[in-house]
Specification:
- The complex is a heterodimer of chains A (about 850) and B (about 425).
- With about 850 residues, chain A is an alpha+beta fold.
- In chain A, strand 3 and strand 4 form a beta hairpin.
- Chain A starts with 10 loop residues before the first helix and ends with a helix.
- Chain B is an alpha/beta fold and about 425 residues long.
- The radius of gyration of chain B is 22 Å and the shape is globular.
- In chain B, strands 3-4-1-5-6-2-7 form a seven-stranded mixed β-sheet, sandwiched between helices.
- Chain B has helices spanning about 10-15, 55-60, 110-115, 125-130, 170-175, 180-210, 215-240, 250-255, 265-280, 305-310, 315-340, 390-400, and strands at about 45-50, 85-90, 140-145, 285-290, 350-355, 370-375, 380-385.
- Chain B is built from twelve helices and seven strands.
- The chains are: A alpha+beta (about 850), B alpha/beta (about 425).
- Chains A and B meet through helix 6, helix 13, helix 14 and helix 15 of A and helix 3, helix 6 and helix 7 of B.
């Protein structure tokens, strides 16, 4: 059995492993006897009945460990035994024989002494951080910073296999494998990045193209060759294609007749647009899937030239437009070669235009009578087609009818231009006169540490025989670049800079951090702490928050099992743009965490809070009034709303469901595992699964009640199910509900400690008592995320120490992250 | 893995292919077989058709086992193939976890178990593909699928995912679209460059390995393996670059290009049309089609989301819709059997229909819908495994039938008893 199986949550996994492995290894350690015989007698009297050869409750077996012997593997068992004895939880009250308090205390003290002696001996070592390769996000960002290229649009890691996530995070060294498929991707991506970063050849000519609305026509004209571009963005007829589009494709303009983006580079995009028709209640009231409540939104997107489904697109910006006035919009954006520009009426009416046309005129489709011959059918089809609003008259009608629309008056595309030409990469790496010096300097940055001549030799030889470009490509595919190498023990300055930078920005150290590391001054007193502060305040920190929170709370589950579009339409409200509501839901926990971090607020807010971060889409979904803007801001929650804290967030509630229905068991485990860090044991084999039957009146609660009357199920399910019941008022999309299809919802429950609650509010109140566990769990998750290894029992003392240090001040989040980053676990390998 | 010899194949076999108007050039197997080597007449092939949402259980499994079983409603679309197929009862995964376990259908191993398994929890299709290695243009083709991390079904020995060919058009292009001479030249230069780069990084990794701890060195193992595998692939690409691709049947490309990816049934049909061509052109001998879990099925009468239909709660309207989708799956499997038979390849091609979940309403991974057709077995029966043999036993039987010399596969305890 390999060490990597050791669980970061310590006991459950470790104990499981210890059962089979402990005996063989215990013998190797030099015994440190402290009343070993006393333990044997005590265990025989009180423990072995349940944790011995016959039964192994909780997968714990105590007849094979000796009190005097402590090593890495038995360490966790002893800590557990001491804790249980000190708290008086074991043996349980219903046991036939229980020791006197003094007897238990004596044996616990004796074991503690053995454990402390072992700790002091320095022979116990915590798990070492494995060699880690860059994960996908780290690879992309490192390429961006190393090569000086934009990777937002042309992402070099597209096509990379997904990184396997261990312990919920995609940063664990042991889980990040390399495969031939990935290697082929590295070869391709390296070439792509060298192309983008280099500036060999003539500088592409900068061209100004302007498209102006000739208002008597349907399309704008302009550009250098008078390239036509689509039409006024008022509805869903796509002139370019010449057919009615589906709602998803509705209301966009795209440039036809050749891309203006003939070379990769920076471009100025400017638009003059006007939002019309939102105030025409006579028209808007007839439109389905349209809400005049919100300003019209113009979305500017760039699409990859590759033919894929769905198309690869990047949103440049989404603008709320003021009504009935012409406004200017300008963007400076890096566009890869041959990409396409599209403009969308993001929250435009989603009904096909012919519905609008039918509503506004007396035009009606002629129905085909039953039994019509083929000729008759064809004739009717023809008449209907002729009558469709694509005739000049009908088009004119729709153009002038004041339906909700965005009118594009003018558009200009200016570029490409370059912030430096030739690029720094071209000058310093490809064109520098001395090959050795150029490659050596590049390797120092690419490998993020000093590089020896021996290491560089193969690359020099390749440069000599096949050219420098190929040598650079080889560096970008070599383990020096792809792996994060760390020294043993306390990290040296280069390794520490990387550890911190990848944890807090998902990229290589920036110039300031790298300079401190190179000068060996990073570990000077105060310097490192200042860097932690600086990175937490910097823009790169968004990467950390987004990546950490979305993985910690399994928010990506929502893409795997998205809420059913038909059942949970609100989740996909078109009036907030096609993905507006969904995106807002996913962002809430991330922005909430960011808010706690920025304000250094207590993590108790994760359990419950009287505010959350909202925009109008989310407010609509929650039924909150008076939030009318797309801008995110903290909003105080009315007490009756039952939102607040992570468990009030639709994202968490949807991520812990399966897109179709909810299961109290799944959600209960989700909370135990991710919030409290106390995952229950896996399901024992041979359990008959729950069969949902919606025909009768059986609710999930009655099914589970039956289930819990079985003693073998009850031990875990009395912990799991009440939590899930408390969340039953939220459906699989996170909406509030008060009944199932045919039965009212009962969200009450009784916790294992006997505390009863009536609903989610009461449950969160009870959960407040578990603040220490929630904070401790967060510390552990952050340590796993930051170091790339799982934690073991050997780390528990330091986790406890970090928590103790933070508790007095109410576990403030920025303090907590700083404590994690400066801890011994984080700063050693 | 050693490369096996290209197999010689009787060209006429492929001219019998019904429904394909023109003869396709036969590729590497037209090369003369090495003297003294026994060569089978036809290469043995394997096709997996698998999906993740299960089948409506009350309609699927026959009540009785043996040759005299009464055909069920659920199996009706396959009735005409009764004599060339075997249905399994009470055969399931050893892993549990509902949706999470369903993607383990082809290995019967969770990825966490796979890491410590000597064969890396390789899936049956990838294991089969090792047999032919470079004998075909593609060692195996893995079609459609969900590009999502947790839903992947096919894994190589290294634990790497076998990438999906996501659309019929992409598959068509792989099979038939020839690059221009210029494109081939550019590609040739790129491949030569890649070979030099791989040499260099290999040397660089050796330098690194000499300076790191034992544990880190073992972490570099999969880097070295990947470089070696990538080098081999570069060589294969270079070899195949100069061999022309077969010509496509007339108008096929146009038809495939017209298929909209949003249409689940048209995409399904296009793949079912292309899969026999993969075998006919000997572009690959191992094919897995992992049906994309599209929520929307463009079938008459289907209004609900597929996933929500699998949670039918026994509601009659939902069951009706789910049954229609189940029938669609099996009717396409039936069509695939027809087409492989029309090519004269049914005796040498094993077709496995499977789902990693039994009935979605239960979310169980036991008693799965599994049907084996073709491959020259004594079919026409229902084998009730009574949950006494692991699924790996079936895979071991299939691998041996294919010609893989092995006595074990993942959790096998032997070949599947009752299957001959």
């Amino acid at each position: 059995m390999s060490a990597r199986l050791r669980g970061e949550r310590g006991l459950a996994t470790l104990v499981l492993l210890a059962v089979s492995a402990v005996w063989a290894l215990v013998g190797a350690a030099e015994p440190m006897m402290v009343g070993g015989d006393a333990w044997a007698g005590f265990a025989k009297a009180y423990c072995i009945e349940c944790h011995g050869p016959d039964k192994q409750k909780g997968k714990l077996r105590l007849d094979q460990v000796r009190a005097g012997e402590v090593d890495e593997r038995s360490y966790g068992i002893w800590k557990h035994v001491v804790r249980q004895l000190e708290k008086g939880e074991m043996p349980p009250e219903e046991a036939t024989r229980r020791p006197a308090a003094a007897e238990a205390a004596t044996i616990a003290a004796a074991i503690s002494r053995s454990v402390s002696a072992a700790e002091r001996s320095g022979r116990l070592h915590a798990e070492e951080v494995p060699l880690k390769r860059l994960n996908r996000v780290q690879y992309r960002n490192t390429m961006r910073d190393l090569m000086g290229v934009e990777t937002t649009m042309a992402d070099p890691t597209r096509g990379f296999p997904d990184d396997r996530g261990g312990a919920g995070f995609d940063v664990l060294g042991d889980e990040l494998r390399v495969s031939d498929t990935l290697m082929e991707n590295y070869l391709r991506a390296a070439s792509q990045m060298i192309d983008e970063a280099g500036s060999g050849g003539p500088k592409p000519e900068r061209v100004y193209r302007q498209y102006i609305d000739k208002s008597d026509r349907y399309r704008l004209e302009g550009g250098i060759d008078g390239d036509p571009i689509g039409h006024e963005i008022y509805n869903h007829y796509d002139i370019e294609r010449g057919y009615w589009t589906t709602p998803q494709e509705c209301g966009h303009v795209r440039i036809i007749g050749g891309t203006p983006f003939t070379a990769a580079g920076w471009y100025h995009l400017t638009f003059k647009v006007e939002s019309l028709g939102r105030d025409r209640a006579d028209v808007t009231s007839k439109l389905r899937e349209y809400s005049p409540k919100r300003p019209h939104q113009l979305a500017i997107r760039l699409l990859s030239p590759e033919r894929t489904f769905p198309e690869i697109e990047q949103t440049v910006a989404i603008h709320d437009l003021p009504d009935n006035q012409i406004v200017g919009i300008a963007h400076e954006v890096w566009v890869p070669k041959n990409w396409r520009l599209q403009l969308y009426f993001e929250n435009g009416p989603a009904c096909p235009l012919w519905v609008l046309y039918q509503e506004l005129t007396d035009w009606k489709e002629i129905p085909t009578p039953p039994g019509a011959t083929q000729e008759e059918r064809a004739a009717i089809r023809k008449r209907n087609q002729d009558a469709e609003p694509k005739t000049p008259q009908s088009k004119e009608f729709l153009r002038t009818a004041i339906s909700p629309r965005i009118r594009l008056h003018k558009m200009a595309i200016d570029g490409p231009f370059y912030k430096e030409w030739p690029s720094a990469f071209q000058v310093q790496v490809l064109d520098a006169p001395d090959t050795r010096a150029a490659l050596g300097a590049f390797a120092r940055r690419a490998f993020r540490r000093p590089v020896t001549e021996t290491e560089l030799e193969p690359f020099y030889r390749l440069a000599e025989s096949k050219g420098r470009t190929l040598a650079v490509k080889a560096m970008l595919c070599s383990p020096g670049f792809l792996y994060i190498r760390e020294n043993a023990g306390r990290l040296d300055d280069d390794a520490l800079a990387c550890r911190l930078s990848y944890a807090l920005t998902s990229s290589m150290p920036d110039a300031e951090l790298a300079a401190l590391a190179a000068a060996h001054t990073l570990s000077e007193p105060g310097a490192y702490a200042r860097q932690v502060e600086r990175l937490l305040a910097g823009p790169g920190c968004d990467e950390f928050v987004d990546s950490f929170v979305s993985q910690w709370l399994h928010l990506r589950n929502m893409d795997k099992m998205p809420p059913d579009e038909k059942k949970y339409g609100d989740f996909y409200r078109i009036s907030h743009g096609y993905t507006g509501t969904r995106d807002a839901i996913v962002k809430e926990p991330v922005l909430f965490f960011r808010h706690l971090l920025a304000g250094n607020l207590p993590v108790a807010a994760l359990i419950d809070s009287d505010f959350t971060i909202m925009n109008d889409s989310l407010a609509d979904f929650y039924g909150v009034q008076d939030v009318d803007s797309a801008a995110w801001r903290p909003v105080t929650l009315a007490p009756g709303l039952k939102r607040g804290g992570l468990l009030g967030m639709a994202a968490v509630l949807a991520a812990s469901a399966n897109g179709v229905d909810t299961s109290p068991v799944v959600r209960g485990i989700f909370v135990l595992d991710n919030l409290l860090g106390q995952p229950p044991e896996p399901v024992p084999p041979g359990v008959k699964p729950l069969q949902t039957d919606l025909r009768g009146t059986t609710t999930i609660r009655t099914a589970l009640d039956r289930h819990r009357s079985d003693a073998s199920c009850a031990s875990c399910h009395r912990r799991i199910d009440p939590i899930g019941f408390a969340l039953e008022n939220f459906d699989a999309s996170g909406r509030w509900r008060t009944s199932y299809v045919n039965a009212p919802i009962d969200a009450s429950g009784v916790l294992p400690n006997g505390k009863a609650f009536a609903d989610i509010a009461g449950f969160k109140h009870e959960l407040g008592a578990s603040l220490d566990q929630v904070a401790g769990n967060l510390v552990r998750k952050l340590l796993v995320y930051g170091t790339g290894r799982k934690l073991g029992a050997m780390d528990e003392d330091e986790v406890d120490a970090i928590c103790a240090q933070l508790k007095g001040n109410g576990y403030r989040l920025r303090d907590l992250v700083k404590a994690v980053c400066t801890s011994r676990i984080f700063t050693t390998r | 893995m050693r490369t096996t010899l290209p197999r010689f194949i009787d060209r006429r076999t492929f001219l019998k292919g019904a429904g394909v108007a023109i003869a396709l050039p036969w590729l590497e197997s037209l090369r003369a077989a090495e003297p003294g080597q026994a060569v089978p007449a036809k290469p043995r092939c394997m096709i997996n058709l698998t999906h993740k949402f299960g089948m409506y259980a009350p309609s699927f499994h026959p009540q009785d086992a043996g040759a005299g079983y009464v055909m069920t409603d659920g199996l009706r679309p396959l009735e005409r193939h009764r004599q060339v197929m075997t249905v399994f009862k009470n055969l399931g995964l050893s892993v549990t976890g509902g949706h999470a376990a369903a993607p383990c259908i082809l290995s019967d191993m969770k990825r966490t178990e796979a890491i410590s398994h000597p064969d890396g929890g390789i899936t049956v299709d990838a294991r089969a593909a090792e047999l032919y290695a470079t004998a075909t243009r593609f060692p195996m083709l893995n079609l459609w699928g969900n590009p999502d991390n947790d839903q992947h079904t096919s894994f190589a020995r290294s634990g790497a995912k076998i990438p999906y060919v996501g659309s019929p058009l992409e598959l068509f292009n792989l099979l038939f679209s020839e690059q221009t001479t210029e494109e081939k030249e550019v590609r040739g230069v790129e491949l030569a460059g890649n070979r030099s780069v791989l040499d260099t990084v290999n040397e660089s990794a050796r330098n690194l390995a000499a300076t790191v701890s034992v544990r880190d060195r073992s972490r570099l193992d999969d880097y070295f393996t990947s470089v070696r595998d990538a080098e081999r692939k570069v060589q294969v690409y270079r070899d195949w670059l100069s061999i022309p691709k077969p010509a496509a049947p007339a108008l096929l490309g146009e038809r495939i290009a017209a298929v909209k990816k949003e249409s689940q049934t048209k995409t399904y049909d296009a793949f079912i049309e292309l899969i026999p061509l993969i075998l006919q052109t000997d572009s690959a001998r191992i094919v897995t089609m992992d049906v994309f879990t599209n929520p929307n099925w463009d079938l008459p009468g289907i209004v609900d989301n597929y996933h929500s239909l699998t949670h039918h709660g026994q509601l009659p309207d939902k069951v009706r819709q789910l049954r229609a989708i189940d029938d669609f799956h099996l009717s396409r499997f039936a069509l695939l059997i027809d087409r492989i038979a029309a090519l004269g390849l049914l005796d040498t091609t094993q077709l496995l229909y499977s789902s990693g979940m039994s009935d979605g309403n239960v979310h169980s991974n036991q008693n799965l819908p599994i049907i084996l057709a073709g491959g020259g077995y004594a079919h026409g029966t229902v084998i009730d495994v009574q949950a006494k043999q692991p699924l790996s036993n079936l895979y071991l039987s299939m691998l041996q039938r294919l010609g893989v010399e092995t006595t074990a596969f993942n959790k096998s305890t032997g070949t599947l008893r009752g299957l001959a």
